[in-house]
Amino acid sequence: MEDSQQPPPPPPTTTATNGNDNRPIAIVHYIPIPNLSFFQFISETVNLIHASDSLFSIHRPSARAVVVLGSTPLKSEHLDQYPSVEIVIGTSAGLDHIDLAECRRRNIKVTGAGDAFSEDVADYAVALLLDVLRRVSAADRCVRTGLWPVNREYPLGNKLGGKRVGIVGLGSIGMMVSKRLEPFGCTIAYTSRNKKSHIPYLFYPTVLELATATDALILCCALTDKTHHVVNREVLTAMGKKGILVNIGRGAIVDEKELVKLLVEGELGGAGLDVYEKEPEVPKELFTMDNVVLSPHKAVFTTESFEALRDVVIGNLKAFFSNKPLLSEVNPNN
């Protein structure tokens, strides 16, 4: 899976399950204790039990499913608490918070959000790129702060049409981003784990080569050991003073300190960022830059995307408890 977005973390309150009906039991894994109202649809299929529930100690040893909300870490020590678990139901596209290697070792299946968020994240990626190039957010600030009558000569932006755009991670989201950029007349290139023989876009084997050959990079890949800081100083420098970086993957794909430094020094053209290395902390140096657009990890936040998530999560739970093929099983080797 080459995308990475997630549902919003619910505010902390207590759950409201009783575990006394005929629905299968599933542990809901979220720290701190969640308000399940946003994910109440899951209770249509299973009875959710949280650590705060009085019945947790009874059902914890025998529960076969664990539902992980948002990007809550699920590590070996957590799995030790659920000795009978056979499946982890993820509610996010990115799964770097789940120890996939440990799940593989224990023969535990893992599912994610599948393509539930792909369209909306792709829209958002293009929106960030357009915003940086045309300075939409900066222009909005100019008007709202009363600077328009004072600064009549607003800085010129740049058009999207004809730009060479490199996509890092040509999975579901990456492909949808490329399809949205084609009508603008953009030239699309990509790098991915493997070259895709059926894709007409130019393939580059490394991010550095892709950065050298394009005007903008859009990061759509998952965060793994191999992609951590894959966009480093060398890559950012190769993009040049007019290069634009858009990140809707994970913050740690980019060496954030180097990104900030190059933006401050004027060695990079701009950035559209929905994710950061130490969320919700954002480097303050970026706050005053008109060539940088900042977003609070919200690319998936649409009514439609969460309706699609509902279908995927319920579909996976029903499939598991009826021994049918899962809708969005993840390869634990990825």
TrEMBL record:
Entry keyword Oxidoreductase: yes
Pro residues bias (residue ranges): 1-13
The D-isomer specific 2-hydroxyacid dehydrogenase catalytic domain, residue ranges: 61-331
GO cellular component: cytosol
Name of one Pfam family that matches: 2-Hacid_dh_C
Keywords, comma-separated and alphabetical: NAD, NADP, Oxidoreductase
Coiled coil: none
Region Disordered: start-end pairs: 1-21
UniProt-listed InterPro entries: D-isomer_2-hydroxyacid_DH (IPR050223), D-isomer_2_OHA_DH_cat_dom (IPR006139), D-isomer_DH_NAD-bd (IPR006140), NAD(P)-bd_dom_sf (IPR036291)
Ranges of residues in domain D-isomer specific 2-hydroxyacid dehydrogenase NAD-binding: 126-299
MF (Gene Ontology): glyoxylate reductase (NADPH) activity; hydroxypyruvate reductase [NAD(P)H] activity; NAD binding
SUPFAM superfamilies: Formate/glycerate dehydrogenase catalytic domain-like, NAD(P)-binding Rossmann-fold domains
Family: Belongs to the D-isomer specific 2-hydroxyacid dehydrogenase family.
Descriptive protein name: Uncharacterized protein
Organism: Centaurea solstitialis
